[in-house]
Structures are given as C-alpha cells and as structure tokens.
Amino acid sequence: MRHRLETSxxxxxxxRIDDKVAVVTGAGSGIGEGIALRLAEAGGALVVADIDLDxxxxxxxxxxxxxxxxxxVACNVASTEDARAMIDGAxxxxxxxxxxxxxxxxARDAIVPKMTEEMWDAVLAVNLGGVFNCTKFAVTAMKRQCxxxxxxxxxxxxxxxxxxxxxxxxxxxxxGFTRALALEVGPFGxxxxxxxxxxxxxxxxxxxxxxxxxxYKLTSPLRTVGSPADIAEAVLFLAASPSDYITGETLSVGxxxxxxxxxx
Length: 264
Ligand SMILES: NC(=O)c1ccc[n+]([C@@H]2O[C@H](COP(=O)([O-])OP(=O)(O)OC[C@H]3O[C@@H](n4cnc5c(N)ncnc54)[C@H](O)[C@@H]3O)[C@@H](O)[C@H]2O)c1
Known about the structure:
This protein is 43% helix and 15% strand. By secondary structure, the protein is of the alpha/beta class. The chain has one domain: Rossmann fold (3-Layer(aba) Sandwich).
C-alpha cells in the first residue's frame, strides 16, 4: 500500500524550466523516460537520448502528445563520438544545452569471483564513462553560456550492494565526480548535483530483483518502493531555480533506505 502525502499533480507544480533545453540520456525507458516527460511538462525542450532509437522515439512522441517539444537521438553514452554528436545535435536544433541529466545506466550483477571482465568493463563504460563523455561536451557549451545544470543519476548502491561491486563502484564514483566537477564549473554559473535513487520500479529492477520487491518494501522505512515520477520531481528541483544555491550534493531519494537497516 502506497502512502502518498500529495498526489503527483500537487507536487512541484510551481517548478518551471521554460525556455531551457534539457538533454536526458537513457530516456527511452524507466527513470529516464519519467524525467524527460516531467521536464517537458515543466516547459523544457527535450533531447531524448537512448541507445535504443525506437525507445527514444516513443518517449519523444509522448512528449509531443502532451504538447511539448522533443528531439529523439540515438546515443550510446559509452561512445565519445555519440556523446559529441548528441550535444552538437542539441546545439544545432535548439541553440543551447541548459540541463544535462546523465541517467543512462546498466547492471551486470555477480559476486566478484564470478564477475567477468566483460561485466566489469561494460558497467564502467556506460555508467561512469557515459557520465564523463556526455558531461565533457555539455560542459563546454555551458561554459560558453555561463550557465547550466547537470544532474547525475547515482544510486543508493553507492553505499554498497551485495553482488553489485561493479555497479556500486560506478555509482560511488559518480558522487566524487559530481563534487569535483562542481568545484571546477561553479565559477561559470554551472551547478552539478547527483541523485541517489533507492528501489524504483522500472524494467531494470524488474529484471534484476523480480519478485523480491515485497522484501524491499518490508525493509523500507516508508514500506514502499518508488516510481520514476519520484526521481523526476527531484531532478526537476535540481534543474530549476529554487535550487540555485545547491551544488556538489547527492540527494537520496529512496524512501529512507539509505538511512540504514530496519531492526529485524
Ligand atoms: N531502477 C532503480 O531502482 C534504480 C535505482 C538507483 C539508480 N538507478 C539508475 O537510474 C538509471 C535508470 O535506470 P532504470 O531503472 O530506469 O533502467 P532501465 O533499464 O529501465 O532504463 C535504462 C535506459 O538506458 C538505456 N541505455 C542503456 N545503455 C545505454 C547506453 N550505453 N547509452 C544510452 N542509453 C543506454 C536503455 O536503453 C534504457 O532505455 C540508471 O543509471 C540506474 O543505474 C535505478
């Protein structure tokens, strides 16, 4: 049973990013799709990037249907050339890159002795290399503009998750990357923050956790799991002006699971 304090219509309704151009990676599914839809609803023009172009097109079509503007782009964030082309495409179409949400991520779970080099390399290339690649080109444009907001999607797993040493390593590294980059680009009016989601119901978690979602609910202080909309609201806050004095931070959005274990 989900205990909601407010309906989704009531949350963050005053937060706007009108006339801002927002790039969201991994926006064809799950959390990325939720973020793209919410940023478009808040007035942003969206670059909907995903390695799966059909999925990106589907999200862009939903944005168009709700009256927003969106450009779907095929982009493998692990590729420097794809990242460069994505940011160039955004600049050519919309003239600026105001918000970058580094959301694309994958999991390849195994305990360390059983983790293959391929599993290790794939997760590092996408989850960490992808953040670096997209940020590198976006931040160059943002420095010219002397403004920008970057939101990196880390995970509660940065605290350590059993069987996810590769994934946890990347999500912890994102926290450090966020802090270091915030120091570099703050003088240019660019803010960099991260969000560490707890369990969010998406295709990724359905594939990795499956039926044990009920166990997650029992170990959550709020006795529930989150939805992409919960992360989208936090991203919108960090992309919008009410958070203008916040940079270098990692915000946990996980129903309290980052606090610690429940006593049972
Ligand atoms: N679902 C959760 O509980 C949870 C919790 C914490 C953090 N996260 C993080 O949130 C992000 C989104 O996760 P999700 O649950 O929505 O996953 P998802 O699998 O539902 O969606 C991920 C999307 O990223 C795309 N993608 C995968 N590899 C890509 C690449 N190389 N380049 C571009 N796009 C790529 C996929 O095609 C897909 O559309 C990830 O970074 C994940 O680590 C998720």
